């Protein structure tokens, strides 16, 4: 019985399912296998961490779950959609509606205020001014930055910029948020505060977060930890949904 079948049999609902994923990069005349027959079941409304040494395939898997990259073999299902069957345009639209991203370096637009950075994906999506005016203040409040709405990124601390990035990732109400080493550029105290915030977002919005990380505090906070080595899964550790980290 595969991990997917086992987890489904337990009644867990998936936000993403990867089945027999393989990926090889071709560099000049050299072929480098990166992912080797991987199965992953990402539970809904859970905090999932991909753990493994550099080169183990964590970022490649995140890119495939995030619909940025495609496998050479295997199937990727996100929010019940077989993303490999979508055209490029349909895939871009699906990704924008269903997946949020948080980056190590925050990726905020320096000329826009905290409010405007959060509002920006809503503008791109054609969301009305009325709905933007309702949603953005609520997100600022949720991440504790109501009093910083007019500040530019350069006027914010690293932790505050990451809070803006989290709010922006949630702006379109995605089912899944993906982050590659989200606390890597933060001090330990700020990183711990960001983790607490993200766990609160899981509970408040029932969103699934999936990260790659080497940070022990991130790993400790996880509901599920997926261990990778040389492009293959070496183990999965799951806590009960809602169990204290």
Quick take:
This protein has 245 residues and is α/β, with parallel strands linked by helices.
Distance between the termini: 28 Å
Q: Averaged pLDDT, please?
A: 90
The CATH superfamily is identified as: P-loop containing nucleotide triphosphate hydrolases
The low-pLDDT segments are 241-245
Number of helices: 8
Q: Nearest-angstrom radius of gyration?
A: 18 Å
Kindly report the spatial arrangement of strands forming the biggest sheet.
6-7-8-3-9-10
The secondary-structure element order is HEEEHEEHEHHHEHEHEE
Query: How many separate domains make up the residues?
Result: 1
Which key terms come to mind for this protein?
28% strand; six-stranded mixed sheet; single chain; disordered C terminus; ATP-binding; cell membrane; four-stranded antiparallel sheet; alpha/beta; nucleotide-binding; 245 residues; Rossmann fold; 36% helix; globular
